[in-house]
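Feature request, filed as a ticket because there's no other form

It would be nice if the structure record came with a short human-readable summary line next to the tokens. Right now we just get the raw output. Example of a typical job, pasted below so the devs can see what we mean:
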Amino acid sequence: MKKSFCNAASTPTHYVQVGSDKIAYRSIGTGEPMVLITRMRGTLDTWDPLFLDELAKNNRIITVDYPGVGHSNGKLPPGIGQAAEFVIAFADAMKLEKFILLGWSWGGTVAQTVVVDHPGRVTHAILVGTAPPGKRTVDIQQAFIDRAFKPVNDLDDEIVLFFEPSSEFSRKMAKESRDRIRVRPGVDDKIPSTPEAIKAYLAAAEEYHVDEAGRLQKLMVTRTPLLIISGDNDISTAVDNWFALNRKIPNAHLAVYPESGHGPQHQYPQLAAEQVASFLRHAIQ
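Raw output as currently delivered:
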């Protein structure tokens, strides 16, 4: 018998108190909880609902807005370490002792930090379109920077940012994903768009790339199963950044999706969700 759940495009927004902040989240599905933390400038509304629906066939899927972002009040944490502490505080407020963690892009850096700073809380981590701690092997491309910081991104921008512009298939998937996301009204209204908001994300990420806390070394000895999903043409966080580390991290699985960019889970929502489900069933703990 199929599990029943509310469609991600229409599921209501709920709120939970985390410290002094009223934090927005949505929850669909049943089963082991999976917390999803999103990219720079992402909100509850900017996940592809088909990807969430596919994930929710096997797990309880909880999406959340960072403090001061989207539907949450407060202020964006000033560093990735503090953002990781927010994730733990949110999990505590939601009464989640152990949970699966999926982070995309900026959220992927937060997810890795949670894994190494709070061993034992995360049963499995899925890292989508992100880079490991420390200096990158391949840096972000100018084409990404030129588009990422515009106040509003149209379809053409999103094709460059998250897909593969030279692929007809990828461009088609970009439009379909954008159309699914915009079934919910007012998506653009909640996206952080001021220069100050964008600078806050960049400043928070600085400590992660300097890595004075030595999180890269901690990541290389973690026993937490990691599934790394990357596009083969990610112009923000190139998959090349993982190649030297893949053999050094004891329990890391690396998947590279063809003709795709920084948002592979939105181009291949069913494939990504199925791969996540298989990873959760079979990864060695």
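Something like this underneath would help us a lot:
Strands lie at 14-18, 21-28, 33-37, 60-64, 99-104, 122-128, 226-231, 252-257.
The domain at 14-282 is CATH 3.40.50.1820 (Rossmann fold).
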